Amino acid sequence: KLITGSFRVGVSKLLVTRALAALADIDSKRVAQRLVGYTDLSHRPSAERYLKLIAPESEDEHAQRGGQPYPFFLAHSLQQPADQFEALLGPAENWQVEWKWDGIRAQLVKRDGRLWIWSRGEELVTDRFPELHSLAQCLPDGTVIDGEIVVWKAPDINPEISPDSGAAFALDNDAPHAAPSVQPFALLQQRIGRKTLGKKILTDIPVVVLAYDLLEWQGADWRNRPQHERRTQLETLIESCQSEVLMPSPVLTGKDWLDLATQREASRSLGVEGMMLKARDSLYGVGRTKDMGVWWKWKIDPFSVDAVLIYAQRGHGRRASLYSDYTFAVWDGPPQASERTLVPFAKAYSGLTDEEMRKVDAIVRKTTVEKFGPVSSVTPTLVFELGFEGIALSKRHKSGIAVRFPRMLRWRQDKPVAEADSLTTLQDLLN
Question: 0.85 exceeded by the pTM?
Answer without folding.
Answer: no
